[in-house]
What we know:
The chain is an all-alpha fold. It contains one helix and no strands. It has one domain (2-159): Helix Hairpins. Helix content is 99%, strand content 0%.
Amino acid sequence: MPRTSTALTALAQLRSADVRSRAQELARAEQDLEGARADLAVAERALELWRGEVRASVAAEEERLGSGERRASEWVRQEQYQAAAARRGEVLLRARDEALDRLRRDEKVVRDARRALAEAHGKKEAVERCLSEGVRLAAGRAARTEEEDAAEGALARWSAGRSA
């Protein structure tokens, strides 16, 4: 029996060693588990922080995009305003050009009318000069005719007085 007892003791020691080993492994596993739980808690906290940063980043990006969209929308409105202003400008330029053309035509008409008036005035003066010269000449002829008549009458009287 000593052998059995030695064998049982050895077996018990082996089991005891095995149990201790297993207990140590279990303890290490439990420590690893606790470490893993701590690591998990740290990771979860880091994950939450990262999610918060991502949410903040997403919110900032959405705000930026939103403001970008507002800026783009504002840019589109500005472009539309500038296009409308350009169209209004083109319309105004066309209207100005048309007004300048009308002004030039009207100025030409006025110049032509003034030239025609000056020509007419010159012709009128020429006619008046001619008329006045004609009147003077006619008056001169009329005066000469009266003088001639008087002279002929005097000559006739003289001739009659001589004949008599």
